[in-house]
Amino acid sequence: MTLQHETGPSTAPDVGEEEDALLAELAGRLGGTLADELTEGGSPARLAKLDLPDGDPQVIKLLVDIPGAVDGHDLESFRVKIQQIEKIRDEIPALRGVYTELSHAFHGENWAAYTMPFYPNQDIAAPLRAGEDIEKRYAPQLRTILSDLIGEGHLRDSAETGPGHISEVHGDRLIRRFWLLQKYLPSSLVDAPEIVVNGVTCRNPLQQAQRLLDDPRLTSGIDPKRLYYPIHGDLNTRNILVTDEAALAGADTGGYRIIDPRGTLGLWDPAYDLSKILFSFTVWDAGLRKGFRLERQDRDWQVAIDGGNYPAYRSAADGLLGLLRGLPEFRRLTENDRGWESRYLIGHAFHLLGEAACRLSDIKKRTGEDSEDQLDPVDLATGHYLYGVLFLEDAIRQLEAEGRVDHDAALSHLG
Ligand SMILES: Nc1ncnc2c1ncn2[C@@H]1O[C@H](COP(=O)(O)OP(=O)(O)OP(=O)(O)O)[C@@H](O)[C@H]1O
Ligand SMILES: [Mg+2]
Asked: Per its UniProt record, what InterPro entries does this chain match (predicted)?
């Protein structure tokens, strides 16, 4: 269903025309012609394929700043994204063949753009949407890719860090983004002290995040003791492109491209990256493709992926931690890190809440596009929010009771 919004999206100037003009101008500067737009990303950036008269096609990615974009979707992080690609390509020759290339970068006052080759691909999760067994292609491919990324990437550099990381990274980010949720979602969801989701009474996530900041003792036992090389930061399944299955299955390197890092240059917690894969399978990717079924009776909310999640996504979610633990590089990364599993699940809950705000961050920009067939961003935000509230409540309850978050107990909330 489409919810009746208590505060509807406001109309605002359409930046689409400015983007169109810039894309055309940049294509002209590069001597190419704009072809199809790539719409898999779901961020405020515009991506288009660029055909070049002599040479392989490129992709141009453009971000025009909109005031109020959430961090990670704003112009500043977009510029850092370009620097992160440069840094990784410079510093890690072993990953140059599998990390996105960067052909050109352009910077305007309120926009930036970059180009890279067009990689014919399917995302790592594509076989699973068709119902393929996870062991046939997805799991062996992911093992190879993560062995490379962790072994050559995360483990390349690290340093000790003090307590407070979870509340600083996740709690603080949710607090900074919460105004957007309060602007577009019903007050009964964002302002009420308690929200009932799929039969579970959950505490308000803003208050939970504030509590983590005020009293970091709850998470100090599971905070990372070390941070690692920032190899990505937004490792969702749509940013892992399989380009050559035979090469990926063979003994040689290559066969895939990692695109679209978050835009972060400092040392980083790998649990953040790996829980982005989990969140792709539990809710995000199917939610964006199919939408959510949302029902409300007074205080009680029910949320599900419309038509149900892809069954193989559920198997991939359930199996991801085991897959990781089978990798020698992962065991090296986490050998003295007792909080890892808990952090992975807390990160998962906060990614869902963070994504809810992202769905709303470019709402103004997209207003006015022909939206007949498009899923309503407020419904997409609501679906992610409800799942986020549920998983955060579960994680915090487990932390309060046991001092840790158990994977199987957490994922049992997927029904
Ligand atoms: N170089 C490329 N070759 C082929 N397909 C690409 C390429 N770059 C991007 N794509 C496709 O476009 C989608 C969106 O691109 P990308 O991940 O860079 O943007 P985004 O997720 O919308 O942006 P961001 O996370 O920066 O806000 C990708 O998931 C992929 O399907
Ligand atoms: Mg992306």
From this structure: Kinase-like_dom_sf (IPR011009)
